[in-house]
Design a protein that fits this description.
The complex is a heterodimer. Chain A has one domain (26-110). Chain A is 81% helix and 4% strand. Chain A has helices at residues 2-14, 25-55, 60-84, 88-110, and strands at residues 17-18, 21-22. In chain A, strand 1 (17-18) and strand 2 (21-22) form a beta hairpin. Chain B is of the alpha+beta class. Chain B folds into three domains: 1-45 and 131-237 and 327-381, no CATH class; 53-127 and 245-321, no CATH class; 383-516, no CATH class. Chain B is 59% helix and 8% strand. Chain B has 19 helices and eight strands. In chain B, a hairpin with a 5-residue loop joins strand 7 (308-312) and strand 8 (318-321). The two termini of chain B are 17 Å apart. The chains are: A mainly alpha, B alpha+beta.
C-alpha cells in the first residue's frame, strides 16, 4: 500500500517538467537519493551532534570538540547507508524520523518550546 | 540503491569521484605545494635569498625581542598593536611590525613591517610584493575569485565527496594487497586502472587522513551546531572559552608605561627553559590594558593551537595561558588539525607528506582519465557532450595547473619590482596560463593536444630555473655550492618535472604513431575489468 502510493507520487513528481524536458524516473530516483544523502545526512548529523554535545557528561568545550571531530565520520556513514539501503522510502523515513526525534529531545532539554 | 552493496558502491565511487575530481585535483595540487609554503615564500623573495641561517637561533631570541621593543617604542609608541616575528628554521628573517590605526571600512588593521637580517640586525632591502606560498595555501582551502566563505563551502563539500569516494573505493576493492604490486604497462584502460589502484592503495592511510582532517579544519563552518546549542553566545562564546584571553586587565583604563620586556621573558624562560619563541604580540602597547602574548613553538607535539603565555604589559602579571595538558577531546581535535597542516613535520616527514600529496594527484588524475577512456571505448567513435566535457576538463585541469604554476613563478621574476599591485598580477599570470590550457582543450582533446600541453609544460618547467638564473644573482649551481638547499631543491624539482613532461611528450608521440598504424587493422579489444 505504502509502496504503491509512493510509486504514484514518483510518477507525479517526474511529470513535473524541468526546462520542458521530462525527467526520467531513473533520474528522479537518483536525484532523490542524492538529496536525502546530502541534505538528509547533513540534518541528521547536525541534530545528532547538537544533541550529543548537550547530553555528554563532560566539560562544555570538550563535548563540542569531541562532537565536531566525530561529525564527518557520522555524516559519511549516513551517506553510505543512504546509498546502501535498497528502499528509498526506508531511507527517507528513517532519516527524517531520527532527525526529528533528536531535534525534539534537544528542544525539550533546552526549553525551546 | 543497486541490487547489491558492491554494485551500489561502485556506482557511488564513480559518480562522487567524477563530479568533484577537478576541484579535488586543484585542492590536492595546491595543498601539496602548501607543504612548501615557507620555501615558496623564500624563492619568491630574492631579497632574503642570501640571509644566512643563524647558528644560535634560539639563544639570540631574547636580545632580538628586547631590541624589537626598543625599536617599536621609538617608531610606534601609540600604535594599536605590535608584532615581533622571530626567525624559524625555514624562515630566515626577523620582522618588527606595528599596526596603523584602523580605517572605519577596514576589517583588520594594516601592518607596517620592517624585515631585518638577524645576523647583522640591519634592515633588508625592500621586499617585492608577492603572495608567494600563501597563494597556494589560500587556493587550497578557499579557491580564488570566489567569496572566501563560498569557496570554503565548495572545498568542504568537494572534500566530503572525496572522502566518500575513498571509502567506497576501499569497499569495492577486492585485492588490496595484490594491487600494491601489480602494474601492467601498455594495456590501455587496464594500465590506467592499475595506476589508479597503485597510487590509491600505496598512500591510502594518507588519503583518508588528509581528507578527513582537511574537513575538520573547516568544521566550525560546516557544523557550528554543537557550539551553538552548548554556548549561550554561540561560536564566539565557544572560542572565548577555548582560547586563552586576558580577562584580568584588558578593561583597565588610561595609559601606563610598559614594564621592561626582560621581566616578562624571565617568566617565560622559567616556565619553559628551552622555549623556542615564535613571536611576541602586544595589544595596546603603553596602555594600562595592554596584553603581551608570547607564542612558543610546539615542537613535535601534535598541537594546532600554538602554546602561549599572556601577560599584562603594565604589571608583568601572568593573566592567561594555553593548556599544559590537553583533555582527551581537545587532544583529538588538536591532533586532527595538526596532522593536516603537518607543521610539526621534520624534513623527512615533510617529504612523505609531499609524496602522499603527489600520489593523491596521480590517483585523481588517473581516475578521471580512466572514466573518459572507458566511455570513449564503449561509445565507439560517437562522443556525447558529457564525454567531451569530461575530456576537456581533464586536459585543462591535469595539464593546465602545472603550466599555471610555472607561469606564476616566471611572472614573479619578470614583473618589475616596483609595479603596483604586483602580487595580484602574479595571480593573473597563473590564471591566464590556465585559461590558455582551457582554450586548447576547448579546440580539441586528442592525443595531439595532450602532447602539445606536455611539450609546453616541459618548456615552462625548464624556464623557471632559467629565468631565475637570468634575473637574480643565484642559480641552481651556486645554490648547490653555497648549500642553499631550499632554493636548490626548488629549481631541481622544476628540472625534474621538465624531464618528466619531456618523457610524456615522447610517449604520446610513439602512442600516436602506433595508433595511426593500427587504424587500418581491427582494433584488439582491451580486457574490460569488472569494475
Amino acid at each position: 500500500m505504502r509502496a504503491a502510493s509512493f510509486n504514484a507520487l514518483l510518477t507525479k513528481l517526474s511529470s513535473f517538467s524541468l526546462l520542458n524536458k521530462r525527467l526520467s524516473r531513473y533520474q528522479l530516483l537518483v536525484f532523490l537519493r542524492f538529496f536525502i544523502a546530502i541534505v538528509g545526512g547533513y540534518v541528521f548529523t547536525s541534530t545528532l551532534i547538537a544533541l550529543l554535545s548537550v547530553v555528554l557528561p563532560m566539560a562544555k568545550q570538550d563535548a563540542v570538540l569531541l562532537c565536531v571531530s566525530l561529525s564527518i565520520l557520522i555524516y559519511a556513514v549516513v551517506f553510505i547507508c543512504a546509498f546502501w539501503v535498497k528502499s528509498l522510502t526506508t531511507v527517507w523515513i528513517s532519516i527524517l524520523l531520527s532527525s526529528g526525534v533528536f531535534l525534539a529531545i534537544l528542544a525539550s532539554l533546552k526549553d525551546w518550546v | 540503491m543497486k541490487d547489491s552493496f558492491f554494485r551500489s558502491m561502485t556506482w557511488l565511487h564513480t559518480w562522487v569521484g567524477l563530479l568533484t575530481c577537478w576541484i579535488i585535483y586543484t585542492i590536492f595540487f595546491a595543498g601539496t605545494a602548501s607543504f612548501f609554503r615557507d620555501e615558496i615564500n623564500l624563492w619568491n623573495q630574492p631579497a632574503i635569498h642570501n640571509v644566512q641561517a643563524q647558528t644560535d637561533r634560539v639563544a639570540a631570541q631574547r636580545l632580538q625581542i628586547i631590541k624589537g621593543f626598543d625599536y617599536l617604542n621609538q617608531h610606534a609608541a601609540n600604535s594599536p598593536s605590535w608584532r615581533i616575528t622571530l626567525p624559524e628554521e625555514r624562515i630566515p628573517y626577523l620582522v618588527y611590525g606595528y599596526a596603523k590605526p584602523k580605517e572605519p571600512e577596514q576589517r583588520r588593521s594594516q601592518f607596517v613591517n620592517t624585515q631585518l637580517n638577524p645576523n647583522t640586525m640591519q634592515a633588508l632591502p625592500p621586499f617585492v610584493e608577492t603572495k608567494g606560498g600563501n597563494f597556494f595555501y589560500r587556493l587550497h582551502y578557499q579557491l580564488y575569485y570566489l567569496d572566501a566563505i563560498t569557496g570554503r563551502w565548495v572545498v568542504c563539500f568537494a572534500s566530503f565527496f572525496m572522502l566518500l569516494a575513498i571509502i567506497s573505493g576501499v569497499v569495492i576493492h577486492k585485492r588490496i594487497f595484490k594491487d600494491m604490486f601489480s602494474f601492467r604497462r601498455n594495456k590501455g584502460v587496464r594500465s590506467w586502472l592499475d595506476a589508479h589502484n597503485l597510487s590509491s592503495v600505496l598512500a591510502l592511510p594518507f588519503h583518508l587522513m588528509i581528507t578527513y582532517t582537511g574537513i575538520i579544519t573547516l568544521i566550525f563552518m560546516l557544523f557550528p551546531y554543537p557550539a551553538l546549542t552548548t554556548y549561550d553566545n554561540g561560536i564566539r562564546g565557544f572560542f572565548n572559552d577555548v582560547s586563552p584571553s586576558n580577562n584580568v586587565t584588558n578593561k583597565a583604563l588610561g595609559s601606563a608605561a610598559m614594564l621592561p620586556i626582560n621581566t616578562i621573558l624571565d617568566q617565560v624562560y622559567t616556565k619553559w627553559p628551552d622555549a623556542d619563541i615564535r613571536s611576541v604580540r602586544v595589544s595596546e602597547p603603553n596602555m594600562a590594558a595592554s596584553t603581551v602574548t608570547v607564542l612558543v613553538d610546539p615542537g613535535k607535539a601534535l598541537r594546532d593551537q600554538t602554546p602561549r603565555l599572556l601577560f599584562s604589559g603594565a604589571t608583568g602579571e601572568l593573566v592567561a595561558q594555553s593548556d599544559d595538558e590537553l583533555t582527551n577531546s581537545k587532544a583529538l581535535y588538536e591532533s586532527l588539525n595538526a596532522m593536516h597542516t603537518g607543521r610539526f613535520a621534520t624534513p623527512l616527514l615533510r617529504w612523505l607528506y609531499v609524496l602522499g600529496g603527489i600520489a593523491g594527484c596521480v590517483m585523481i588524475a588517473t581516475g578521471c582519465i580512466m572514466w573518459a577512456k572507458r566511455i570513449r571505448e564503449r561509445s565507439k567513435g560517437k562522443a556525447s557532450f558529457g564525454l567531451q566535457l569530461v575530456e576537456g576538463l581533464n586536459l585543462a585541469t591535469i595539464m593546465g595547473l602545472p603550466l599555471a604554476t610555472c607561469s606564476f613563478f616566471i611572472a614573479n621574476r619578470l614583473l618589475s619590482p616596483t609595479l603596483s599591485g604586483r602580487d595580484d598580477k602574479e595571480v593573473t599570470a597563473f590564471f591566464l596560463a590556465w585559461l590558455v590550457a582551457g582554450v586548447i582543450a576547448l579546440i580539441k582533446r586528442d592525443k595531439l593536444q595532450w602532447r602539445i600541453m606536455a611539450a609546453i609544460n616541459a618548456l615552462a618547467c625548464l624556464s623557471v630555473p632559467l629565468v631565475n638564473a637570468l634575473t637574480t644573482n643565484g642559480n641552481i649551481v651556486s645554490y648547490l655550492m653555497h648549500k642553499q638547499w631550499a632554493l636548490f631543491i626548488f629549481d631541481a624539482l622544476f628540472l625534474l618535472f621538465s624531464i618528466l613532461f619531456l618523457v610524456q611528450t615522447e610517449k604520446l608521440r610513439t602512442a600516436e604513431n602506433a595508433q595511426r598504424k593500427t587504424k587500418s587493422k581491427p582494433v584488439v579489444k582491451p580486457v574490460r575489468s569488472k569494475l
